[in-house]
Structures are given as C-alpha cells and as structure tokens.
Amino acid sequence: MRSRAVERREEALHEIAQTEFSRRGLAVLLTLALLATIGAVPLVQLITEWRDETPGLPHPLSVFRMLPRLEEFRQVQGIPGLLELLPSLREIHEFETQLEETSVVSGWILPRAQYALTAIFGVGNEQAYIGRKRWLFYRPGVDYLIGPGFLEPEQMQARIRGAKGWEDPPHPDPIAPIIQLAEALKAYGATLVVVPTPVKPSVYPDYLSSSAQPPAEPLQNPSYEAFLRELERNGVRVFDPGPILTRFRREGGRAYLRTDTHWTPEAMERVAQALADYLVREGLVPRPAEGRYRREERQITNLGDIAIMLKLPAGQRLYRPEMTTIHPVVREDGAPWRPDPRGPVLLLGDSFSNIYSLEGMGWGADAGFGEQLSFFLQQPIDRIVQNAGGAYATREALQADLRRGADRLRGKRVVVYQFAARELAVGDWRPIPLPEPTLQPTLAQEGAGPIPSTEPKPDAAEVLVGGTIRAISRPPAPGSVPYPDAIIALHLVELHVISGAFPEPEALVFAWGMREGRWTELARRNAGERVRFRLIPWDQVSERYGSYVRVELDDEATFLLVPYWGEAVP
C-alpha cells in the first residue's frame, strides 16, 4: 500500500507537467525573454572581444577549433582512429573553464553580487568563508578540520571515486610517500624532518564559529594523531609547530593574518627559532656560528589572499589591507640572504615558507621561513619552495633536479619538509621516487664542512625561437587557489632558431599562465599551434620565478629536457 507522501509527490509532478498558460501571448513573451537572455551572454562576449581585438580569447564560436580538421578526417582508419580525433573530457573542461574565466557578463555581475552577499548577509563563496570579527578562512583548511579522518579507508576511496573524468585519481595516503622520501634521503646521508603546519581554523576555531572556544592545543583532523604515530613507528622525525602557535596566541600574539591563509611574521619566526633549536639539540646540524647573518625591519601593508578570493569589486571597503612587520635577513656584508647549495639543510616548503620570501605574494621579500631558519642557525641553507601542491610539488621538483644531474642533496645533513596540514586531507600524495645517489661522498660520510657546488652554469644568452606546442599544462582556475600568479609548462618541438644559438630540436619551457588572477593569452593556446619565445636558461631565473605555483607536464620524457624560461613574443 502506497503512502500518502508518495501519492502527493506523484500528484504534484502531474500538476507540474500539465501546467498551461491561460494567455498564449504571455507564454510566447516569456519564452522569447528566456531565449534572449540565453543568447545575450555569448553575443555580448563576441562583440566585446571583436571590439577589443584581443587575440587568443576563447569566444563561444572558437569551440569549433576543437573539432578535427578535414585533413585529419581523411587520414582516419576505422572507428578507434575517429574517436581519438574527438576532444577529450579534459579539453572540453579546459575550454569551459576558459569561457567562464573570460566571461564579460560574469565578470561584471559576480563582484557586485558577492559584495551584496558579503556586506548584507556575511556570506562568502565556495573558497572563502567569513568568520567572526570579519576574519576570513580558506575552505580547504576548514574541510580538513571538520571532515572525516583522512586515513579512514572509506574517505580515501571516496576521494579516488570523486576524481572527475578528465583528472587522474589522487593518491590520498600521505604515509607511504613520506616514508619513501625518508628512506631515499638516508642513502644520501640526510635525515628527513617533517613539519606539518597547522591551518588557521586549527588555532582560531572560535573566530570561525561562536560555539568554539580558544583551544589549549591546536584542533586537528581525526586522523592526525594516527598519522604522527605511524611516522614515528617508521622512524620518521616530525616537528609539530601546532603547540608553539597556540602557546603564542595564549601569550597575546596573533598567529595568523586576518584576511590571509598564512601565519604572521612573528608566529613564523617563533616556529623557525624552535625548529633551529630542535635541529641543534638533536645533533642534526652543527651549533650556530656567530655574526654570519643579521636581521632588519620593514613595515608591509597588503590585502590577504582570501579577501582577494572573495572577488569583490575594485575599490571595495569591506576588507582593508592589514599592516605587519617583517624582518628581512641579510648577510654580514649587507647583501640580501640567498639560498646556498653548500648549506647542511635543504628546505622543501609551500606557501607558508614562501609568504615573506616571494615578492609577488605581496608580503615583502627576504624574510620567509627559510631565511629565518638560516638566521637562527647562523648557517646557509638551500631551499626548494613552491606555492600550492605541498603534498607533491617540492618532492617532484627535487626529483626533477636530481634526474637532470643537479645534486641538490650533496652535502645535506637534514631535509626539512614543510607543508600545510590541510594537504593531509586534500593533497595528492603521489609516489615520487628519488634516483639513486652518485658515488660522491656525503657530508656525513666525510665529516667535513659543506661541499661547494660544482654544477656547471648554462649560457645566460637569450635566444629567440619558434616552435610547435606538443603539450601544454593549464593554470588553475582563477579564484580556486589563494595565489594570483601561476607558471605553466610547454613542450616545444620542431624548433627553428630566429636569433642566437639553440642546438636542440625540442625544449621544455616554463612561462606565465596566470597573472594577477587572470589567465594569460599563452594559457589559452593548444597543442599543435605555433608560438615564438625568447628563451633564458631556467637556472638563471629559478631563484626569481621558481617559488610560484608551477603546473608541470605529466609526460616523464620532458623530465630529462633542460628547462628554459620563456617570454612569448608575437
């Protein structure tokens, strides 16, 4: 016997299906209005782009460029070959993302609608949450804290199943790759120290929800303690900054920026000092020397990355820039601090290490986590830091350097692996094996001081080349990550030299894919298109550009190519 609820549902569906307009003219008018609204969006887009004569923008009609050319159809043999010519799900998704990112209508409506929602109702968006006292929180950090345990089998399977059709499934288990890294580093004579950095809601849950209280210890994901125990059981050292940050808050300090994802300079310096003390106390690095580095003081004013992710209109007054004091590190001769491959420590870090180092993040330079650690150790250190992808990006960069012959681990006693704790729940912990070490003696084996780098420097001369794009990576969707700039990678083939000297027929090129929250014209190019670049050896500019978000190619064949920095030219 059917329930009354089922009968009412069927009755409602029947009534909806039979709905008629009593006045035919009104029905026609509403239909025409709907069609006009739908058609106006691409029409406005086309008119705007043709008027501005902006090259490379993916206006709606450019979807036909994704279809195979007539010559390609003629060469097809069989149904499988025909299917290979059709656009992939990844290509379709990338085209949709480009249309959304360049939409004139959306670009006009969205900031104004968001301003009203934020000002009147205190509502954020899919990436930025508005807390108490107008503090802002990044959604992945909140998800890490309130979500299920990241080590629970059901949650790992859910993350794998949740991958979209154009994405490779993530590797959700962080334990095995970290143990793999620790074991690989032992062969180089280095010890791994893991530094999972707490996210803002872990230390300030009461600023996110009125039902929470200031914590005595940082709040963590339900699997965090099991994660620590498993690493300890496998002999992996962990330095947890959480208790230091909550203690700093109890003492009256402000541990995180109000409108940004990251910690304040004072909190970061407190952690760097404690980590330096730990490394010395455990006998992992020599005791500090004296007078090798000193610090200066500088005032910085900037609007945080989460406030930018709200996509409010230009000139908005809801969130003002906040001021903080950084302490740039300089050498004893007054020159700015720089990473040194001869140092006994290599820092692998994400944006928490980068925030006061990378000028492009807006919070100053020469004062980040690596600089402060070097200052408190009074010793040079090397670093590989990159915004985003803390679960794999720096491990991947280290692997690529070692494969290309740049021995970043030569002479290292310690590798500090810093990443935001949210990566444990949302990051891709893909296995990235390191190549076997060379027969060169390590610092620990020699018992001597740091070994000077003997890596050859490539020619710094610029060359102008043209080539065909074989593969190109895509930057993240604007607003989906708390960083406005991103670098993409291109595999160029069929190279011809326009000026200068370039003996190779192909090249791996890094170039800007997103600037100030907008995709570049280059990011909208596709495989098969011809481009021209002014190339500079990557080694010459890696210190300047290497810390930005960088989206690598999936093709392992490109790992052995010498990378270049490219500036697109018409």
Strand content: 15-25%
Distance between the termini: 73 Å
Strand numbers in spatial order across the main sheet: 4-3-11-9-10
Mean pLDDT: 84
Number of helices: 21
Strand element count: 18
Overall geometric form: globular
Structural domain count = 3
The rounded Rg comes to 27 Å
How would a crystallographer describe the biggest sheet? 5 strands, parallel
Low-confidence runs: 439-460
* Helical amount: 25-40%
**Structural class given helices, strands, pairing?**
alpha/beta
General description of the model:
The protein is of the alpha/beta class and 570 residues long. The chain has three domains: 4-106, no CATH class; 171-305 and 320-434, no CATH class; 463-569, no CATH class. 36% of the residues lie in helices and 18% in strands. The strands form five sheets. It has a five-stranded parallel beta sheet, with helices on both faces. Strand 1 and strand 2 form a beta hairpin. It is globular and about 85 Å long. The protein starts with a helix and ends with a strand.
Kindly summarize this structure in a few lines.
By secondary structure, the chain is α/β, with parallel strands linked by helices. It folds into three domains: 4-106, no CATH class; 171-305 and 320-434, no CATH class; 463-569, no CATH class. It is 36% helix and 18% strand.
